[in-house]
Amino acid sequence: MPTTCALCRRQIPDERIGDPQAIQEHHLRPERRAESPTVVLCRPCHDQIHAVFTNEELRESHDTVEALRDADRLEGYIDWIRGTDKLDIDVTTSNRVRERR
Ligand SMILES: [Zn+2]
Ligand SMILES: [Zn+2]
Predict the structure, then answer these.
(1) Which residue, 24, 26, 48, 57, shows the most beta carbons closer than 10 Å to its own?
(2) Beta-ladder partners of 96
(3) For ion ligand 1, residues whose CB falls within 5 Å
(4) What is the pTM of this model?
(5) Domain limits of the chain?
């Protein structure tokens, strides 16, 4: 079964699986990593989520993939990313708090 990004649904090429520059795990409740469900995202989607939402916003109102996919702030992004097959994209980094790794 091919690996796809949970947000944009693009397929991750087999040779990129395991490459953290291409595919990353997102904790749906960032401050509760131990118990948080996780989803697999391509790196641009993961960067984008953390650029437009604080951890608090993610935890409070965007702790499911469905909520993220419906988010107004991601609408334009998702339309755009679905039209490209790039995985190495520098999403503009905002000065919002980013998840510590
Ligand atoms: Zn994606
Ligand atoms: Zn994350």
Answers:
(1) 48
(2) none
(3) 5, 7-8, 42, 45
(4) 0.84
(5) 26-35+44-86
H helix count then E strand count, the chain:
4, 2
> What is the distance between the alpha carbons of residues 53 and 94, in angstroms, rounded to a whole number?
10
Do 10 and 44 contact (CB within 8 A), yes or no?
Answer: no
* Amino acid, single-letter form, for residue 53: F
Distance from residue 36's CA to the centre of ligand 2 (Å): 11
CA 84, CA 68: separation in Å to the nearest integer?
Answer: 20
Spacing, Cα 100 to ligand 1 middle (Å):
20
pLDDT in tens, 28-56: 998 888 889 999 999 999 999 999 999 99
| Cβ neighbours of 28 (radius 10 Å) | 19
